[in-house]
Design goal:
Elements lengths: L5 H12 L11 E5 L5 E7 L6 E7 L6 E6 H6 L7 E3 L9 H11 L6 H8 L3
Antiparallel strand pairs: 1-2, 1-5, 2-3, 3-4
InterPro entries: DUF2958
Organism: Mucilaginibacter psychrotolerans
Protein name: DUF2958 domain-containing protein
Amino acid sequence: MKLFTQAQYDQLIQNGKDMGEYKDHHPVVRLFITGTACTWLLTELCPDDPDIAFGLCDLGMGFPEIGYVSIQEITDAQGPFQRLERDMYFEGQYPISVYAEAARDIGQITLDEKSLKQAAYKP
């Protein structure tokens, strides 16, 4: 399976070109390693080096964080019985800041609508 569809790749690159002072893109793709708690919600790829992605990263240790990650390093994290896959049904409904806030609240990336709504409307 390809990590990104052409439409996702194009959107990730377009988001990476956005040089706005405060950008808070919706995640474009969700990657995960089967059999683990490792998950990535990616919002952009660096147009000059598409191996560098930006998004919310969760290695399953209870400390998800926003930052940059190498696509090659994510790919290399696969084991003989764990595969890197793309969530074919994921659609980012909120800006990445909302996913990050919800993840901080519960210690892992979540797609739970109640948790995301609470994070979105936090004062």
